[in-house]
Specification:
By secondary structure, this protein is mainly β. The protein is 7% helix and 38% strand. The protein has three domains: 135 residues, Immunoglobulins (Immunoglobulin-like), CATH 2.60.40; 97 residues, Immunoglobulins (Immunoglobulin-like), CATH 2.60.40; 90 residues, Immunoglobulin-like (Sandwich), CATH 2.60.40. Strands 1, 2, 5, 6, 11, 13, 14 and 15 form an eight-stranded mixed sheet that branches. Strands 18, 19, 21, 22 and 23 form a five-stranded antiparallel sheet that branches. Strands 4-3-7-8 form a four-stranded antiparallel sheet, with helices on one face. It is elongated.
């Protein structure tokens, strides 16, 4: 009987009602903190790191979408006149310098969601470890006043969205059309680039040009939005000399309106290709000595010091007369590269005045100046 009662009690416990299901714990994406804005021609470009963490520091395993928010403010009619703004920066930026930027709380109220990058489109928006978004807002009001544009992004995970990112602000400028006529010529000192100064802005009018940025890539790679220029400061002229690694290179140039941040620049020029190789000749031998022996001339010279030295080329000049000897012509003494620092000329004609030249040769075919010996004559009789 006791056993039966125990079974009944256990059955009653087993058939008890389960509690109400708990809501899933929200997985909140960590807010983006490295949003960056730039302008390229008539486009505004946003870039930021691919979201990877939650607010608890764990890996973010699912992203549903990323929303882009924008707030556009017009320059107040009461803005300071040009006489009171900084003349060293573009006027639209200088005029907005005295206008406070929008605080985050106000941005959240005034901004509008302009786009959403959903999960399926994230791969197309990704470059390396960063995401790229391109916007095309109006750069001026209908009456011609400049505008200032503020952006933020927000990530939505599986069941919750994160906070707004850091705010980034840009005052769009009248950017030049892409520089034209870019040429790249390999010289011994490097690759010399030249191009033409743009005279008009995108959409017409005079462009703002602070200088130029130079970009170098391998062939057919193209120029992405995250590329960094090879110059550290804007190039003020329309020529630049680069010393790249040896090989085939491709160059592009942009006209810079403001270095920022944010950076404001034109579209890149058409590419110019060039093959750069070592064109610097090795040093010439310090001295060349011609020793007269029986029916021959023995040459000795000092070795040239060069890491890429391949050997030497030898030359012989003929002369006539005495004190001084007048040179009547010179020519290569051998067709092959000599790899030692001595040579025997057993083809010298007796009684003829000769002098000998030695030039260093490197592995790229660059030849040094010739170092000449004194005039010597092999006597007709011992």
């Amino acid at each position: 009987m006791k056993r039966l009662v125990l079974l009944v009690v256990l059955a009653a416990v087993a058939c008890g009602k389960r509690g109400d299901p708990h809501p899933p714990v929200p997985i909140i994406p960590q807010a983006t903190s490295d949003l960056v804005v730039t302008q390229r021609a008539d486009k505004v470009i946003l870039t930021w790191s691919y979201p990877s963490l939650t607010t608890t520091g764990r890996s973010l395993t699912e992203i549903r979408n990323i929303s882009v928010y924008r707030f556009v403010e017009e320059l107040p009619v009461s803005a300071l006149p040009p006489a009171e703004v900084d003349p060293t920066v573009p006027q639209p930026i200088a005029l907005f310098a005295k206008v406070p930027t929008v605080p985050k709380a106000q941005f959240e109220k005034l901004s509008k969601k302009i786009d959403s990058i959903d999960k399926a489109n994230l791969p197309a928006a990704t470059s390396g470890s960063r995401l790229i978004y391109t916007d095309a807002p109006a750069f001026r009001t209908t009456d011609g006043r400049p505008v200032r544009v503020t952006y933020a992004v927000m990530t939505e995970g599986a069941n919750a969205h994160g906070d707004y990112s850091n705010l980034v602000t840009i005052v769009p400028l009248s950017v030049a059309v892409a520089p034209a006529g870019l040429s790249a010529n390999a010289k011994p000192q490097g690759v010399v680039l030249t191009w033409s100064e743009p005279k008009t802005a995108v959409g017409g009018g005079a462009p703002i040009i602070e200088g130029y940025h130079i970009y170098r890539t391998k062939l057919d790679i193209g120029l992405d939005e995250l590329a960094a220029p090879i110059n550290t400061a804007p190039v003020k002229s329309t020529t630049y000399t680069d010393t790249p690694p040896y090989g085939e290179q491709e160059y592009r140039v942009t006209a810079v309106a403001a270095t920022g941040p944010p950076l404001v620049q034109s579209e890149a020029s058409a590419p110019a290709r060039v093959t750069f190789r070592d064109q610097i000749a090795p040093p010439a031998p310090a001295s060349v000595t011609a020793l007269i022996e029986t029916k021959l001339v023995r040459l000795l010279w000092e070795p040239a010091e060069a890491a890429d030295l391949a050997g030497y080329r030898l030359y012989r000049a003929e002369g006539q007369g005495h004190d001084p000897v007048k040179e009547i012509g010179s020519y290569a003494l051998t067709t092959q590269t000599v790899t030692v620092t001595t040579f025997v000329d057993d083809k010298a004609d007796l009684g003829i005045a000769y002098r000998y030249g030695v030039a260093s040769l490197d592995t790229n075919g660059n030849e040094s100046a010739k170092t000449w010996s004194e005039w010597v004559t092999v006597p007709k009789s011992p």
